[in-house]
Amino acid sequence: MISPLLILFLSAMAAIFALALLVAWLYPAPNNQITDEELKQQLYAHGITHEPEQILQSVSTKEAIATLGGTRQFAVLRALGDRYALRIVDRSQITQTGASVSINDYTWPAFKLPADNAEILTKWLKSTKGDINA
Amino acid sequence: MPENLPDIDVSTWAGPLYIVLILIEIIAIKLRGKGGQYEAKDAAASMFMGAGSAMVNAAYGVITAAIFIFAYNLAPLKLPFNLWTFLAAFILWDFAYYWVHRYYHRSRWGWAAHVIHHSSQHYNLTTALRQSWTGFWSGAFVLYIPLALLGFHPALIALVGGLNLIYQFWFHTEFIDKCPKWFEAIMNTPSHHRVHHAKNPRYLDANYAGVFIIWDKMFKTFVPELKSDSPDYGLVNDLGTYNPLRIFSHEYVGVFKDLTQPDLRWSDRFKYIFAPPGWCHDGSRLSSQQIKQEYLQKHPEQQGTPGLNI
């Protein structure tokens, strides 16, 4: 009983692997780097009218975090193959440990910022914390 | 089991059929240069979710079969297997499917199981395979039990259920624009189902049908695909991962986090499980109706257009 199920499972995995390779060959994923322009475009596409102020790119350039003008919120954008995912988060949702940044979202892996951007984020988080406490 | 009921396990030939059709779509889109998009990680995640779903459902199939046999034994009338009972079972299953699917979208417990199917930002044949691993736990199968109580044999119910699912595979494509008008009027088609997978405000909570689109027209959930508002696929809050385990479990994790918040009323905890997705006690999130209302505040000229009659 187990053996046919195992064969079925392994056949399915082999078929998935082969089809994924074919897709990767025929439709190579663009090496999306998040630019300021892309972030603005994604905010607009999501109906968010606030302009990003300063944009910090991650080490991999697949993520970016930006302060949103006129708000105490942050926009976080991730490039996923040929698509993007966006979150608008409050300061309380962001956890920074050195250069590593997490938005405490189960579907959103933590990402690393270059040292200078990590410093800037630390300052942002401190300043917005001050705003909230004020 | 009725003697003349063919012993067909549709799942045995569905798998190879799906693979062949996916292969054709991948190549056809490339040759044509339009009609859909593929991305390797997305397609792999979808197909892996499909394989996982098939394995899990095979395991739960034993339990659901026992439940349907129990219900069938309670039926005062046992229907024979013939063309008419097959057609009746097929149509009744599809009617029940409409309500199952509506429940999946209108109750967060159902949505937690079904959200997997909507979690891709692509819309191609692999998206059809991105199926739930927890459909059994959603409890939705109880809506099919009346078929057994009406006297349809569980093997016939399994057959029409399998055929229903297979029908739903082919319309997960952008390669086909519109079908003939008479077909679009009665049947679920790629155009109708693109609407269902879109997160544009006007398309939210629309077109729940499986095979016959007439159920949506009857129960006022039908929205046609508009050329002026191209479907934008995925979730209102798109996932930031292709990890199948996280895709499968993320909404359950969300439910758990929500209902374990401190200082909540018990009624609020209940609503975090069963109220429509997006419901929250503090107004920090939006339900689909609220998303439509917010959209109409920004675009009042759209009031009264399809999907925005609120």
Q: Strands of the biggest beta sheet of chain A: in what spatial order?
A: 1-2-3-4
Strand content of chain A: 25-35%
Radius of gyration of chain B (Å): 20 Å
How far apart are the termini of chain A? 67 Å
What is the SS-derived class of chain A?
alpha+beta
Q: How many DSSP H or I helices of chain B? A: 14
Radius of gyration of chain A: 19 Å
Assembly annotation: heterodimer
Could you give the order of the helices and strands of chain B? Answer: HHHHHHHHHHHHHH
Instruction: Specify the overall morphology of chain B.
Output: globular
How many separate helices of chain A? 3
First-to-last CA distance of chain B: 49 Å
Output the structural class of chain B.
Answer: mainly alpha
Overall shape of chain A: it is elongated
> Most extensive interface, residues per chain?
A-B, 32 and 40 residues
Task: Give the topology string of chain A: H per helix, E per strand.
Answer: HHEEEEEEEH
* Overall mean pLDDT of chain A: 89
Strand proportion of chain B = under 5%
In helices, the fraction of residues of chain A equals 40-55%
Overall pLDDT of chain B, averaged?
95
Query: Which stretches of chain A are poorly predicted, pLDDT < 50 over at least 5 residues?
Result: none
Q: How are the SSEs placed, and which strands pair?
A:
The complex is a heterodimer of chains A (134) and B (310).
Chain A: H1 2-26, H2 36-45, E1 52-57, E2 63-68, E3 73-80, E4 83-90, E5 95-97, E6 100-102, E7 111-112, H3 115-133
Antiparallel strand pairs in A: 1-2, 2-3, 3-4, 5-6, 6-7
Chain B: H1 10-32, H2 40-74, H3 83-106, H4 108-114, H5 125-129, H6 135-138, H7 145-149, H8 154-170, H9 181-186, H10 190-197, H11 214-218, H12 244-259, H13 266-274, H14 288-298
Helix pairs in contact in B: 1-8, 3-4, 3-8, 4-12
